[in-house]
Design goal:
Distance between the termini: 11 Å
Number of helices: 4
Order of helices and strands: HEEHEHEEEEEEEEH
Shape: globular
Radius of gyration: 22 Å
Number of strands: 11
Strand content: 15-25%
Number of domains: 2
CATH topology of the largest domain: Mannose-Binding Protein A, Chain A
């Protein structure tokens, strides 16, 4: 009898344990930040615990491009994240998708997983493939699924960004951040012009920056995690109770 009760409790506990790991509504990112929903373009399946992704925002405030030190721009995008009222944005580490004479955007803001806006809109499948932040298709373009025009508050922002970059994320020669005249991108469309508008302007002008998050990993929502702990604790308690009778 004790074995039967223990088995039943274990089966029920496993059902509770496994269900939140596959329910999209019960997923979140670290620090409670937004986790993608729908289909993971890397796997072709619904998002689940352990899947990885990046987030993107454009800075609401603007900055001059006079510095050739990439840390200046990384500090700026993180300071912008600290101003956000959206859950978790200020807790994540962010990197500027911009190039200086010594650092390429693709090496500074590394993208190894699908990239999403803060409103759960897919921007790029990843660093490779037809759609990719820095990746290019057979036509040499670097198109996006949607315009990267959402700022750290979740609002639509300005149309022009400092990038100092070519469409593949390398520095635009003599037009990187810190040069006298700096390359910018436009969000008016989703072609490669989002990163390289084939134009430049004085580094004393003020423009927004692209911010890319560190790689994030999907986790269960706190309520689901507490449910798992409670279920495991209940299994242990009931097993001890019946075994010791």
């Amino acid at each position: 009898m004790r074995k039967i009760v223990t088995l039943v409790v274990a089966v029920v506990g496993m059902a509770v344990l496994l269900s939140p790991l596959t329910a999209t509504a019960d997923l979140t990112g670290p620090y409670g930040i937004m986790a993608p929903t729908g289909t993971n373009p890397s796997t072709g399946e619904e998002w689940k615990v352990g899947d990885t992704y990046h987030l993107h925002f454009m800075t609401d405030d603007q900055i001059q491009a006079t510095s050739s030190d990439i840390s200046t721009y990384n500090s700026f995008v993180n300071a912008q994240a600290d101003l956000s009222s959206l859950t978790g944005v200020s807790d994540v580490t962010w990197y500027c998708a911009g190039s200086t004479s010594s650092t390429d955007a693709r090496d500074n803001a590394v993208i190894s997983s699908p990239l999403y806006r803060l409103d759960d809109t897919l921007l790029a499948d990843g660093a490779t493939g037809t759609y990719g932040f820095y990746g290019t298709d057979t036509g040499g373009r670097s198109d996006l699924h949607a315009s990267p025009d959402i700022d750290q508050h979740g609002n639509e922002g300005y149309w022009r960004f400092w990038t100092g970059s070519n469409p593949d994320g390398t520095g635009a020669t003599s037009r990187q951040l810190g040069a006298n005249n700096v390359r910018y991108g436009s969000i008016e469309n989703t072609s490669s012009q989002w990163l390289d508008d084939y134009n430049y302007e004085s580094n004393t002008a003020e423009r927004s920056l692209h911010a890319i998050s560190e790689e994030l990993t999907v986790v269960p929502e706190p309520a689901s995690a507490l449910l798992l702990v409670a279920a495991l604790g209940g299994i242990g308690f009931l097993r001890r109770k019946f075994v010791n009778r």
